[in-house]
Amino acid sequence: VVWRRIMMIGCGILAVMLQVSLLPALRPLGVVPNVALVTVALVALYMATSEALILAAGCGLALDLAGGANFGMWTGILMLVVLVVGLMGRAGIELDSWWVGLMLVGIGTLLMTIVIWMSLVTGGANWPVPLDWVRRLVTELVLNLLLVAVLRAGLRRMFFEPAGGLKLGG
User: Fold this and answer.
1) Cα(69)–Cα(88) distance, rounded to whole angstroms?
2) Cβ neighbours of residue 81 under 8 Å, at least 6 residues apart?
3) DSSP-based helix, strand, coil % in the chain, nearest 5
4) pLDDT in tens, 79-96
């Protein structure tokens, strides 16, 4: 149990570091993929909700402090994703299904974009949304969903399978 917590903290630190340092410099396809959202959503599928909430709060606070604008947005959205995962688990939804991670990250990406757009609109930007913003949203959504597909298997193995190699689930 302790090694899982250490791995969770390490994944969170790595995700935040990539999100604030390397990826903004690279900007693949003109957008910054949301590694923190993908990591928190996938880790939440395999950890207890209380532990995943600590990860979400830590990652969100670090990203909020690094970003400066819309303070609290990252923390709120990451914690909301974890709470939704907890509710889905209590409702009996199979959290290990491939579509759950895709759905969480897709909705999280859309929600984050809507919050940012609304802050821009109240700040005096034009409405309706320019076509370039929609293109960026679609590009970021595709990159985030590809990240889910790439990271899911590794994080699942790290958090869901015990050290002996015996699988706990499907």
Assistant:
1) 31
2) 37, 40, 41, 44, 56, 104, 108
3) 80, 0, 20
4) 999 999 999 999 999 988
